[in-house]
Design brief:
single chain, 117 residues, mainly alpha, 2 strands, 47% helix
C-alpha cells in the first residue's frame, strides 16, 4: 500500500483540506511533542489541537472525504476501538505484503502542496 491511504484520501478529499507529514519530519516534531516516541507505523490526525491516533485517525480522515466515506467512517465506529486498532496494526504490519509488489508513484505537483516536511 506504500502511500496508498494518502493517495486514496487526497483523491477523495473535499478540496485540498488534508495535509500529510511523516512522523519523523519537522512538521510532526513541531506539532506533536511526543512524535519521537510514536511507532512510525502510527497514523495521527491533528486538527485544531485535537490529536487522534491509529484507527481513530483513519476514521477522522474517512469522515472528511466525499460520500460515501463519511458514512463508512461513522459505521466503523460501532466496532470497539480495541478491535479497530488491532485491525489497523495488522494492516500497518503487513502493508508491504498487501501492496503485492507495486511500486510507489511520485506525487503530482498539486499533491506535493499537501505533503509537509
Amino acid at each position: 500500500m506504500c502511500n496508498g491511504f494518502i493517495t486514496f484520501a487526497m483523491a477523495r478529499a473535499r478540496a485540498p483540506s488534508l495535509y500529510f507529514a511523516p512522523l519523523q519530519g519537522s512538521t510532526a516534531q513541531t506539532v506533536l511533542p511526543d512524535a519521537k516516541d510514536l511507532d512510525l507505523r502510527s497514523a495521527v490526525f491533528w486538527q485544531r489541537h485535537q490529536r487522534l491516533y491509529s484507527s481513530d485517525a483513519i476514521l477522522a480522515v474517512l469522515k472528511s472525504l466525499h460520500a460515501p466515506w463519511p458514512v463508512i467512517g461513522f459505521l466503523l465506529q460501532v466496532f470497539p476501538r480495541q478491535l479497530r486498532d488491532f485491525g489497523y496494526a495488522w494492516v500497518a504490519r503487513y502493508r508491504r505484503g498487501i501492496n503485492l509488489g507495486r511500486s510507489c508513484r511520485l506525487p503530482t505537483v498539486a499533491e506535493r502542496e499537501q505533503l509537509l516536511p
